[in-house]
Amino acid sequence: MRLLFEIGMEELPARFLVQTLKEMKENLEGKLNEKRIKFDEIKTFGTPRRLVVLVEGLAETQENLDILNMGPAKQVAFGENGEISRAGLGFAKSQGVEATDLEIIETPKGEYIAVRKFLKGECTKALLSDLLKELVLEINFPKSMKWGMKKLKFARPIQWFLALVDGEIVNFEIEGIKSGRASRGHRFFGSNFEVSTIDEYFEKIKENNVIIDVEERKNLIKKLIKEKCEDSNEQVLVDEDLLKEVANLVEYPYPIVGTFNSDFLEVPQDVLIISMQVHQRYFPILDLEGKLLPKFVVIRNGIEDSEQVRKGNEKVLSARLADARFFYHEDLKKPLVENVEKLKQVVFQKDLGTIYNKIERSQKIADYLIEATGMETRKETIDRTILLAKADLVSNMIGEKEFTKLQGFMGADYALKSGESELVAKGIEEHYYPRYQGDLLPKGVEGIIAGISDRIDTLCGCFGVGIIPSGSKDPFALRRAALGIVNIVLDSNLNISLKALVERALDTLAAAGVLKRDKAEVLNEVMEFFKQRALNVFTEMGYSKDIVSAVVDKSFDNLVDTLLRIKAVDEFTKMDSFNNLVSLMKRVGNISKGFEGVMVDPNLLKEEIEKELFDKSQEVARDAKEMLVAKNYIGYLNVLLSTEDIINRYFESIMVMDKDEVIKNNRLSQLNYIATIFNKMVNLTLIEEKK
Predict the structure, then answer these.
(1) What are the distances in angstroms from CA 605 to CA 475, 646, 650, 654, 666?
(2) CATH of 336-540 among 1.10.287, 1.10.3210, 1.10.286, 1.25.40
(3) Nearest alpha carbon to residue 107 among 66, 67, 72
(4) I want to staple 336 with a disulfide (CB 3.0 to 4.6 A). Which of 345, 351, 418, 525 is the partner?
(5) Domain segments of the chain: what residues?
(6) 531: DSSP letter
């Protein structure tokens, strides 16, 4: 059998559509499985006016249920006199049967009471009415509404239900809205219609100018833009996120090219592009060099061109761009630095003070980074960057909440036009990088140091006043801030100490009188927070989780050095000798596990092999230290491996757990000493042996 279910409604917000279809599919799958109804596949389709589910290969009946529920042991369920006990009666009651229906089952563990149940599967059609009704009532939206006198909550008013199993109606009713075989086509270019079969629905919905498949609409938009909107010397800027949104705003897309006054091009093109994309859902048109042209593409919900639609959208965009130009010219009437004073009135967080307070702390943190990176010659431009980095937040362009996505970019533009250096302007823009996963990373020293200083102040400040992310709750985007720092440090190859950076930030907060919690406790929490982010970043680079964990477990304070160690271990795992090293470490570590002593008394070494191992361990400790100082991590691992033969001979000859407690402890100390050498760079016990 096949089941087709369509919920028709007023236009659904674009951002709801895909997630709602996903949840409907998952919910329906769960309900069918719970009801023991087999099916082959569930497909979903959707437009702003309809949510559609198609189930293929639906079983005509439920599967029969034949189960055996085991209860307590017979001796517990029945007393010595053979009468049923309270435990036996309780089990029977929980299963909904009489005591006489209980069976005695022989098992390998003895005799137990049990209840055998057999339920014959019902006809699927008889179950679908309640199932579909539940499906509707259980749909959740970020925002729902009521309409008329109805108690039902839904994202938008429901207008119809089409529900067919093969060609037969699945009858149900929700607050006066009855299911049937009727549907509706495009609001302006289609008609209402009825269908006898499921295949007829898919034919008629197309005839009535509705494309119900989301991906098909997206592909059609790209195809029509290419065919109808691009000249040979032009390119339409098709942002993927905007494409998804626009595809979910229409039932049939038709692209129309509009124009705007070229005088608006005096405004930075990013402002105009943001205005078109974010505010109007238009696709900008550029020349082949990427320069914005006074043209755009609007996607109409229709099947043909319309001069009226074109003019209407041109008029709306013109008003929007006029606002942008006004804000821009107003902002240019004064130098950017004059905005800094206003930041004293903008609260960052009630316990951490204003944005201006944050700037002051960031400059002190930057002093550590400047010294640690040897960038004293750039101190002036770095300090100026940090001073001006947030100044555009109180500009007309950003402060009016119209173009918040352009923070940093506008600051850079205003800085240049205020006479600031290009290094400072670039730093202002780059200090926001990365803004999201996969975004650009800062390349200039000013942006790198300003960005790290700002983020570490936010991170330590929030932890310091008790604002700590939990689950999906992260109002100050602290995970993103920590990830940003990790990625910037690695990309910029900064040999800095994370711990020292965090300590400087906490000292700065304490000096400002805003650190509310114990410094040592916050330090540990922030470092653990960084550890989790570092694990994620290194794993996403393609290194196996066990290798990353093994290296990070020892140290991640210097992220650049940590990456070198991970690369070395990863390379070593590809060698034939790797498994020998791991098994060697585990053999040494396991026998001395829990023993803390490492001081070996050479006078207690009786056997020749013990003395030989003692001399070798001194040599290895010296060589290993030299390799670590030189950052020759492959060499370090080879030094460890050089002990393989002697350690194996030692275990063949020596009984470590000697009856003499003094001898035993000395031997454990010797092995423990070797284990500490093995564990200087990487915790080898966490790495899986390669097959």
Answers:
(1) 61, 15, 12, 11, 8
(2) 1.10.3210
(3) 72
(4) 418
(5) 3-61+123-207, 68-119, 230-331, 336-540, 562-686
(6) H
Residues in contact with 269: Cβ distance below 8 Å, sequence separation at least 6, in sequence order: 291, 292
Look up residue 640 and give its amino acid: L
- Residue 538 amino acid letter: F
Contact 312, 290 (CB under 8 A): no
For the CA atoms of the chain, what is the radius of gyration? Answer: 35
| Contact predicate 467/349, CB 8 Å | yes
Report d(CA 423, CA 412) in Å as an integer. 10
The pTM assigned to this predicted structure is 0.78
Q: Which residue has the tokens 């007829």?
A: 200
CA angle, 614 then 681 then 455, to 5°? 155
Burial class of residue 468 (count of CB atoms within 10 Å of its CB; 0-12, 13-18, 19+):
middle
DSSP three-state, residue 532: helix
The CA distance from 536 to 479, in Å, is: 11
CA torsion sign for 669, 673, 674, 678 is positive
Residues in contact with 225: Cβ distance below 8 Å, sequence separation at least 6, in sequence order: 236, 238, 255, 283, 297
Q: Is 122 helix (H, G, I), strand (E, B) or coil?
A: coil
Alpha-carbon torsion, ordered 609, 615, 617, 621, to 10 deg: -170
Tokens matching residue 170: 């699945």
Distance CA 409, CA 485 (A): 20
Expressed in percent and rounded to 5, the helix, strand and coil fractions of the chain are 55, 15, 30
Peptide bond just before 268 cis, omega within 30 deg? no
Q: Are 229 and 285 in contact (CB under 8 A)?
A: yes
pLDDT in tens, 230-283: 988 999 999 999 999 999 999 999 999 999 999 999 999 999 999 999 889 999
Q: Two tokens at 132? A: 């579909």
DSSP letter at 64 equals P
CATH: 1.10.10.10, 1.10.10.920, 3.60.21.70, 1.10.730.10. Which one for 562-686?
1.10.730.10
The 10s digit of each residue's pLDDT in 487-539 is: 999 999 999 999 999 999 999 999 999 999 999 999 999 999 999 999 999 99
**How many residues belong to the chain?**
691
Long-range contact pairs involving 611-615 (C-beta distance under 8 Å, separation at least 24): 612/646, 613/646, 613/647, 613/650, 613/670, 613/674, 614/670
Q: Residue 141 burial by CB count (10 A; 0-12/13-18/19+): exposed, middle or buried?
A: middle
Residue whose token pair is 């916050």: 522
Burial letters for 335-370: b for 16+ Cβ neighbours within 10 Å, e otherwise? Answer: ebbebbebbeeeebbeebbbbbbbbebbbbbbbbbb
Distances, alpha carbon 674 to alpha carbons 143, 236, 605, 642, in Å: 63, 65, 15, 12
Residue with tokens 């995970």: 479
Residue 255 phi/psi, 5-degree rounding, is -80, 140
| C-beta neighbour count of 315 within 10 angstroms | 12
* Backbone phi and psi for residue 20, each to the nearest 5 degrees, phi listed first: -65, -40
| Alpha carbon 628 to its chain's center | 36
Q: How far apart are CA 12 and CA 248, in angstroms?
A: 9
- Would you state the pLDDT for residue 555? 92
Low-confidence stretches of the chain (pLDDT < 50) are: none
Nearest C-alpha neighbor of 650 from the set 673, 625, 622, 633: 673
8-state DSSP, 49:
T
Neighbours of 147 (CB within 10 A): 12
Tokens describing residue 648: 């194996």
> What is the C-alpha separation between 547 and 549, in angstroms, rounded?
5
Q: Which residues contact 544 (CB under 8 A, 6 or more apart)?
A: 570, 573
